[in-house]
Amino acid sequence: MTYSSKDVALYHFTACPYCRKVRDSLNEQKLNIELRDVRKHTHYHQELISKGGKATVPCLRIKEADGYRWLYESNDIIKFLKQQVK
Q1: Which of 1, 25, 40, 46 has its CA 20 to 30 A from that of 71?
Q2: pTM beyond cutoff 0.90
Q3: Where's the GST N-terminal domain (predicted)?
């Protein structure tokens, strides 16, 4: 399945090295996805915990037909973005 950049959002914060790795990959791929900074916006942090299940970043929220999937781990996120987001 292929997803559009509007189907995903990245939960992150600026100083996190793993988040930077994912953001660098986004830039390389020229993907324009929504970035949700959990340090600047506490409601994103709360959403990450309540819906994603943990406060770990980076986390990619993926819109599915039946809800959302939450993908953690920078390497898994980068692989997903390269293979499935256009």
Answers
A1: 40
A2: yes
A3: 6-86
